[in-house]
Amino acid sequence: MAFVTKTIRRETTEPVQVIDITDEVKEIVANCGITEGQLTVISQHTTAFVNINEQEPRLMEDMVTFLKRLVPRDGNYAHNIAPVDGRDNAHSHLMGLFMNTSETIPFSDGKLMLGTWQSVFLIELDGPRKERKVLLHLS
């Protein structure tokens, strides 16, 4: 059985940001040399996540607004008293409790088997960051 591993790297510019990575994921799958199998898309971070949802600009704005309301940045969080990396980011970790670190997507004939309205997103919860990594593992 063949395996291919690739990494998508993205800089983020907002504290909470929804980034559509579908086209890049599709291109990697189409050019990986494997025509049938499964793709696992995984964020390598504890405050950035992977999600499958609809790519519609107003909905993407709603997603950001919802997350900010769900877990406000200015909450009284114990993690922020002595943060490990100097970032007051307890809210980011708490938002992440409602998200997936990874998604598995089947592919056939070198094409993702996503539904009509489905797109693959990197969800930044603690930005801006110089680099976020999303690992793609195809088998």
Task: Outline the structure in words.
This protein has 3 helices and 8 strands. With 139 residues, the protein is α+β, with helices and mostly antiparallel strands. The strands form 2 sheets. It has a 5-stranded antiparallel sheet, with helices on one face. It is elongated, with a radius of gyration of 16 Å. The N and C termini lie close together (7 Å).
Compact summary:
With 139 residues, the chain is α+β, with helices and mostly antiparallel strands.
CATH topology call: Jelly Rolls
Binned, the helix content reads 10-25%
Number of beta-strand segments:
8
**Top-tier CATH class:** Mainly Beta
Alpha carbon gap, first and last residue: 7 Å
- Structural category is alpha+beta
Please give the order of strands in the largest beta sheet: 1-8-3-5-6
**Residue-averaged pLDDT:** 97
Secondary structure layout:
Blueprint: E1 4-12, E2 17-20, H1 22-30, E3 37-43, E4 48-54, H2 57-70, H3 90-96, E5 102-108, E6 111-112, E7 118-124, E8 129-138
Antiparallel strand pairs: 1-8, 2-7, 3-5, 3-8, 4-7, 5-6
Summary keywords:
elongated; 22% helix; Jelly Rolls; 3-stranded antiparallel beta sheet; alpha+beta; 5-stranded antiparallel beta sheet; 139 residues
